[in-house]
Amino acid sequence: MIKSIKILNAVVLSFFLAGCFSTKAASKNPALDLSSHYTGPKAKITVSDFELKTSGIYTPVSLSLKEYFITILNETRRFEIVSPQEADLIISVEVVEFIPESSGGKSGSGGGGSSARSFMGGLLGEVLNKANMQLRLRLIDKLSSNIISSRDIQSQAVENSGKKEAYNPHDKIFKTGLSEYAGTPMGEVIHDCLQDAGRFTVQNIPQNYYKN
To answer: What is the C-alpha to C-alpha distance for residues 83 and 90, in angstroms, rounded to an integer?
Structure first.
């Protein structure tokens, strides 16, 4: 009976290790290098101000997110970022969720978290920090106002007691407008989410817009 319980505990632990410590939920496409040396025609686009659909984020941060996103798009060498009057395409971005920190259960106690988190806290120690971000991205034809493509993009990162140092993006923006998130799970989330938004933009703008 004791042997069976030990086997069951090992299976449960393996399940949670596999399912709970995947720190990046944003989809990746390694075949698309955003910094590749593209030399073809460019599409004229404009990026609208990020529309805030959630609490916990303020205008200065949203402006820094927009600046970072534009930097990512510029690095692809595929776009000419212009004013709305000059653009053929509008990139619309809504911030649906922005959670820099959400604590979980603590080892040996409830820790204020859910029963599942408390259970995992007892097995694996305290979950120190969990960050999450979700964007709603739309590519809109300027002339017709038709939505060419849209997607919700989400990223998540978890810091636990065994990992004191979070991934630290080296992008310049994390030394200025987003400096408070440098070296934190939220910094990783922002980096992954906006990089994924850049990939989506490159992949989903039709070829006929590349004419400049």
So the answer is: 10
Residues 199, 32: contact at Cβ < 8 Å?
Answer: yes
pLDDT score at 39: 87
- Give domain status of residue 11, yes or no: no
Give 33-96 as a DSSP string: -TTS---S--EEEEEPPPEE-SSS--HHHHHHHHHHHHHHHHHTT-EEE--TTT-SEEEEEEEE
DSSP 210: B
pLDDT tens figures, 20-46: 333 344 444 434 556 667 888 999 999
Sign for the pseudo-dihedral over CA of 120, 124, 127, 131: negative
In the chain, the amino acid numbered 24 is: K
Which residues constitute the domain of residue 175?
28-104+127-209
- Do 43 and 88 form a contact (C-beta atoms < 8 A)? yes
Q: How many distinct structural domains can be found in the chain? A: 1
Q: Look up the CATH number of the domain holding residue 71.
A: 3.40.50.10610
- Describe the crossing of helices 185-204 and 59-75 by its angle, rounded to 10 degrees: 50
Phi, psi for residue 110 in degrees, rounded to 5: -70, -35
CA-to-CA separations, 175 to 80, 187, 193, in angstroms, rounded: 25, 11, 18
